[in-house]
Write a structure and sequence with these properties.
137 residues; mainly alpha; Four Helix Bundle (Hemerythrin (Met), subunit A); 6 helices; 82% helix; 0% strand
């Protein structure tokens, strides 16, 4: 029996989130930036939902996911998590500028590093939450 009732859902979210993150990077390298951006949104959203479930919280709409990420990032004192959705929202503009001039590409990669770092940090938090729940059970 699972120590936490949402473990299977969290595992499904993790699998989908990491697969989307990997696919987003592949799409980006292939020049399909719009598809990459959509996959990043999905990956980040699933990571936040997984983190919320691991803390016993359920999230509904996109706005609640964004707000939860901002609060969680503040609690963790992690700028990447706190600003992840804002960075992702500005990614479209950065990608357009990068398309126009190659000199701005490094900013896009910094944002992508931050977003992927936020996804990884959220899944680390899930692992920590699940470990503490198992040890207290």
């Amino acid at each position: 029996m699972d120590a936490h009732p949402d473990t299977k859902r969290i595992d499904r979210y993790r699998s989908q989130s990491l697969r989307l993150l990997e696919s987003a990077m592949t799409e980006l390298r292939s020049g399909r930036w719009n598809r990459s951006e959509e996959m990043l949104w999905g990956s980040l959203t699933l990571a936040v939902k997984g983190a919320a479930l691991s803390r016993g919280d359920e999230l509904g709409d996109d706005e609640s996911v964004r707000e939860y990420a901002a609060v969680l990032g503040s609690d963790l004192r992690d700028r990447r998590v706190r600003e992840s959705f804002a960075q992702l929202a500005s990614l479209t503009e950065a990608l357009e500028r990068a398309r126009e001039t190659r000199r701005r590409v490094e900013g896009v990669f910094r944002a992508l590093d931050d977003i992927s770092g936020a996804v990884e940090r959220l899944w680390d938090l899930v692992d920590a939450n699940q470990s503490s729940q198992e040890s207290s059970a």
